[in-house]
Amino acid sequence: MGAASVAVDSETMGLMLGRDPLCVVQLSAGDGDAHVVRLNRPAYDAPNLKRLLGDPATLKIFHFGRFDIAMFLLHLQVMTAPVYCTKIASRLVRTYTDRHGLKDLIKDVLSVDISKTQQSSDWGAARLTPEQVAYAASDVLYLHALKAKLDAMLEREGRLGLAQACFQFLPHRAALDVAGWPEVDIFAHS
């Protein structure tokens, strides 16, 4: 029996840390169901969610986890770990393409076409529309299957260890974003 894992994503009012609030978090255990949680801004009192995100026994699977992890650190004051990011895995192993967005990745790897039409919508509204809820759910429903396929590819190409090192660093990269180093390559010479 493997360790517990949960697919995680979030919806915000925009993509700028500090300006744009965290509004919705969606979760899936990989069983075909998704849970969409509308947060009580600005208090962000979500003890069960915080406990899950910080649980060292539960792997959190993301697509572009850097942003979600930073938003959770900023708004929920929780360091999310351990993590897995399908975008990082895709970039490490699918070097034959530059299409690493979730829609393209799901279509290419799982042969499933998902809609992204609700991506830019008002996630801070008092009530979410059924279309928003369906969209939010679709963003986590396929992450477990993507992880399985990407892990097989990473193993085949001898890059699984490199991917795991990147995943371990990811929460620290998100902390750098929150601390004010969003686009600085701290490893660059100049």
Write out key terms for the chains shown:
Nucleotidyltransferase, domain 5, 5-stranded mixed beta sheet, 7 helices, 15% strand, 5 strands, 190 residues, alpha/beta
Question: Could you give the topology of this structure?
Answer:
Elements lengths: L3 E9 L9 E7 L6 E4 L8 H8 L3 E5 L2 H12 L6 E3 H8 L8 H9 L19 H12 L1 H14 L3 H20 L11
Parallel strand pairs: 1-4, 4-5
Antiparallel strand pairs: 1-2, 2-3
Helix pairs in contact: 2-7, 3-6, 4-6
General description of the model:
The chain has 190 residues and is α/β, with parallel strands linked by helices. It is built from 7 helices and 5 strands. Strand 2 and strand 3 form a beta hairpin. The protein is globular, with a radius of gyration of 16 Å. The mean pLDDT is 93.
In a nutshell, what does this entry contain?
This protein has one domain: Ribonuclease H-like superfamily/Ribonuclease H (Nucleotidyltransferase, domain 5). The chain is 44% helix and 15% strand.
**Total domain modules:** 1
Widest sheet, order of strands = 3-2-1-4-5
Number of strands: 5
Instruction: State the CATH topology.
Output: Nucleotidyltransferase, domain 5
Tell me the span between the first and last alpha carbons: 47 Å
Kindly state the percentage of residues in helix: 40-55%
Determine the strand fraction and express it as a percent band.
5-15%
Largest pleated sheet: 5 strands, mixed
Uncertain spans: none
The average pLDDT score comes to: 93
State the order of secondary-structure elements, H for helix, E for strand: EEEHEHEHHHHH
CATH architecture: 2-Layer Sandwich
What is the molecular shape? Answer: globular
Structural class: alpha/beta
- What's the tally of helices? 7
- Report the radius of gyration as a whole number of Å: 16 Å
Q: What is the C-level CATH assignment?
A: Alpha Beta
CATH H-level superfamily: Ribonuclease H-like superfamily/Ribonuclease H
